[in-house]
Each structure stands twice: as C-alpha cells, then as structure tokens.
Amino acid sequence: MQWDLFCRVIDNFGDIGVCWRLAADLAGRGEAVRLWTDDAGALAWMAPQGAPGVQVCAWPADGAAVAEPGEVVIEAFGCALPPPFVAAMAARAARARPPVWINLEYLSAEDYVERNHGLPSPQASGPGRGLAKWFFYPGFTERSGGLLREPGLAQRQRDFAAQGRRAWLTAQGLAPAAGERCVSLFCYHNAALAALLDDLAQAPTLLLATPGPAARQLRALLGPQARRGALRARELPALTQRDFDLLLWSCDLNLVRGEDSFVRAQWAGQPFLWQAYPQEDGAHAGKLAAFQQRFLAGAAPALAAAVTRAGLAWNGLLPAPAQGLLPAPPLWPAWRAHCAVWRDRLLAQPDLAGRLRAFVAERR
Ligand code: TRH
After folding, report:
1. Which atom of ligand 1 is nearest to the CA of 107?
2. Which pLDDT belongs to residue 360?
3. Residues flanking ligand 1, CB < 6 Å
4. Residue 286: partners with Cβ closer than 8 Å, 6 or more residues away
C-alpha cells in the first residue's frame, strides 16, 4: 500500500527521528512510504543510507500541485496537513475508498492514552469534510498503539552480544579501561548534571557525551581536562540511528531524553534515566510520574524509591542531592535485572507498526 507520512520539525530531533523510524519500519514490511517533511536536515546524519521503500519528499509548497494521496495518510503529532492535500483526500474518497487518515500522537504512559487510542474525529468542515481522522496513541500497554520496534531487533541484539559488549566501542576508538563503567549522555540543558558528575566520579567511569547541550554543558563543568575524580568524559560525533542503538547497548547506564531515544534505551535493557521534554506548563512531571509508576510496578521497594528519586532529580522536579543522585552501586544489579524484565515484557507485546497496519486493515 502507499503510505503518506507528514512530519513537521518543531525542534530537536524527535519528530523526524520517530517519523523516520516508522517510515523505515513500514517500508521494511513491504509498504511504500512517502515521508513529507519541512526539514529533512537531520536525516543526513541520522540515516545517511536511506531505506529501500522510503521516499523523502519536501513539504508541499503553498499553491503547488499536490500528489495523489495514498491509501493511508499519517499526520504525525498533529502537524496539520496541507489543506490542498486534504482536499485531494476528500476527492479520492468521492471516487474510491477514502484514505485511512491517522493522527499519530506523542508517546505517553498516562491513562488518557488508553481512553483516546483509536477514537475517530469526524471532520465536519474544511477541505476534509466528510472524512474521519483516527487518533493513534503510542504507549506501553496492550490497549495503546504500542512502541516502535522493527522486526529483527532482538536478533540484532543477540548478534551484538555475541561479538562482546564493548566490541563496538573499541572499534570506534572509545574502549573503556579495565573496570571502567560506560555511561552515555543525551540530555537537554540539565541543572542536575553537576550532581550526576559528582556521583559518577566516585568510581571509574567513561562518560560518552552526544553533541549539543550534553557536550556543551560537560565542557563548561569539566573544563579541557574532561575529568573529575575517577570520571573521564569523551565527546561523540552525531551517530546514525543504528549506531546510536549500539552505543546504548554498549553502556551500563544511558541518559536519554524526549521520545525516541527513551524507547531505544528501554529496548537496550540497561539501566537508564529519562529526561522528559520540558514543557512550560509542567506537563512533563505528569508524564514522568505515569511512566515511573508503570515501569517500577513490581520492583523491590528500595530500588523503586531510588530510581524514582533519581528520575525526579534528573528532571529538576526534586532538588539534586549533594550526594547520591543515582541509585547506590549495590542497587545496580537489581536495576539492570529490572530493566531486562521490563524490556522482555514490552517485547511480548505487538509493536507499533504492526498495530498500525492491523488498525488500517480494519478500517479499509
Ligand atoms: O531530540 P529529542 O529531544 O526530541 C524531542 C522529543 O521527541 C519530544 O517529545 C518532542 O516534543 C520534541 O523532540 C520536539 O529526543 P528524541 O525523541 O530521543 O529524538 C532524538 C533522535 O535523534 C532519536 O531518533 C535518536 C536520534 N539520534 C541519533 O540518531 N544519533 C545521535 O547521535 C543522537 C544523539 C540521537
């Protein structure tokens, strides 16, 4: 089937990162995908190899003729489709089966996800009058739209482990010294970073910082030596999405943010801390709380309390403690085991692209 996926880049890399991943995943399952975006810039480093079956197209210019819509149209994150394209969808509906029009929402663990997932929004006015738009909510439960997970991920992870967990880092010239733990850092500007560094500096640690705010803040805090106590830091180049996964699989702790890296850290099955996209109205606090509650259900109380505290402090929702932002070292084996169990539980659920295709099939 022909899928049209529309993505506007608001800021950061999550909008295009999620849409690229979905486009490539659908194409890998035999769908033809046009990814329409107003800013494909980040794809040059995120996915320089492209993907068979995905055509990246410029957002239609005002007044320009629009393409004939495909069988499925996805409006990512309420990006508002170009009105002439919607008119073309309505015209198609007058001739043949209407395209299945889906609004793909942001990921959340909050309860509204299950309430709203799959609801229709009949269009009573405008160029799409008479069409229905369907709400599709990614999530962590069976009754949500699920999480992006391309087929073959688990096998790729097994192959990676068979090579040795540090083999990829070594090949990048980033081999840790014997006994050094590896930590990846992808964050927004984060007032708790100094406290995190103090914590990490207590034991031999190689901290690998992604470009942007993480690297900039680290430079300001550590100076040119890039060291504090037993901690040394290295800056990474921008990695492809595939290599970014390998970074997460290589590390003992991953600091991630936003939406897509947050999900990838969960597939990595290693301890992670998530910095939610900070929102002026404070909505990120509710998102974090809802996630922590689901994620930590069933964890031993001491682990749940320590991980909850660390998450709150890392998101600026608790003052960063002078010492001990992270769970204490004796808790790390249980933290790791809990992350692996969580990943296996998510792996047992159908993935997002699979649920989306089933959803579309039911509505055609
Ligand atoms: O960049 P983000 O902060 O994106 C955010 C969120 O999606 C947020 O919900 C949204 O509202 C906002 O954008 C507009 O974080 P996220 O979601 O993890 O996206 C980063 C993408 O960049 C992800 O696909 C992984 C990719 N990436 C690489 O491919 N290589 C890299 O080296 C790095 C650091 C990231």
Report:
1. 9
2. 98
3. 10-15, 17, 46, 106, 186, 210, 238-241, 244, 257-262, 277
4. 110
